[in-house]
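debug: dumping io for the single-chain case to check the tokenizer round-trip. Nothing else runs in this session.
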Amino acid sequence: MSGTAQIGVTGLAVMGRNLARNFARNGFTVAVHNRTTAKTDALVEEFGDEGSFVAARTPQEFVAALERPRRLVIMVKAGDPTDAVIQEFAPLLEEGDVIIDGGNAHFEDTRRRERRLRERGVHFVGVGISGGEEGALNGPSIMPGGSSQSYESLGPLLEKIAAKAKDGAPCTTHIGPDGAGHFVKMVHNGIEYADMQLIAEAYDLLRKVAGYSPAKIAETFRGWNTGRLDSYLIEITAEVLAHTDAATGKPFVDIVQDRAEQKGTGRWTVQIALDLGVPVSGIAEAVFARSLSGHADLREAAKDLAGPSAAVLDASAGAAFADRVEQALYASKIVSYTQGFHQIRAGSEAYDWDIDLGAVAAIWRAGCIIRAAFLDRIRAAYDTRPDLLSLLSDEQFATEIGAAQDDWREVVAEAVRQGVPTPGFAAALSYYDGLRADRLPAALTQGQRDFFGAHTYRRTDREGSFHTLWGGDRSEVGTG
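debug: decoded output
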């Protein structure tokens, strides 16, 4: 079998199959391989008319089908299965060839794999792919890490199959070395968790406080989607809320168990943020909200705890409240993106990746789950000021959130009064207030630490570290 395929995909479950079809539809000859050959045969039989496929039944056939430098995409489960596929194929490759991991790998695993394969002269590219199975087929947002040389070989293919923003730009770019691509995809998913939680809280408030039906909330969300909240998640929320269950005639949302599951990338985002010392409170609350929803026994045991009952507002007050919820949702979403971009900046500095935040915002404008109209403005903010420390320091976003803050506070206060949990809205508002505070109570916290652990503190009036002799005459000593 001569090397005629420009790209190869091994692992032909839904995502791998659709990615292979995407390459073929865009004019590339694609070698396809799966551990069970039935999936390989089924793909070629069912979709062979979409483009040029080369079916390979063994790893040797698969590698032989690829033109040099070979570009081999792995689409299997993250973790040990990915390592097993790499170990199977790496000995068959030569210097300059490229292995691409398109799964949801932990970025530290990607860094480890990249180091080991680099020693053999083989490039390893960790690629974050967002957009689900539909995006894989029709154009995802693609976040590749790895060496610049590997992107020279792989980039033109990715740019062809990626989603295109409204200005025609492909939603992919070279993110940075080794694990940078999977790191950015991880944070993307963390923002996604926060975004979904905030939307769910908006729904809950509109239903329990404004008294809206799911159908009316769907209509409200459709209206919001024509303005500044224009985004994929707002769009599909309206579709979910408008859906009626065929078996019962009830709103679909009422027949789904209220237990949200998770695959782990949101958790990783929070864990790594803790390691980096970056506050991602909105993302963390979204992860914990999913966790709380899954503890059915805990919730059952606590269901009779005292608290207020939500009192539905009249029609006029409900409509005014819905407008305030829109303000709170918009402001809280901006905070979530602010925290996510802060984490990407911190990761870039910690791992020496030199990530272009404006470019990241640009490739999230289409294809991915968190695609939203305001990403154009986020891109512009970072393009104008690459050193921008926080989106909340951007004049336009700061002005908008300043205008929204009164309604935002009213929504959180009303939620507290009525006993409706809004961990995402409240965490976002607390983060906003923490940033703008002239003095934080951390001064007291540091004093406590010095008292019980001699951890020292810094003074406001002179340089250096100090410790108070709390058990003695409480005199102060400098420690350097």
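debug: round-trip ok. The CA atoms of residues 282 and 427 lie 6 Å apart.
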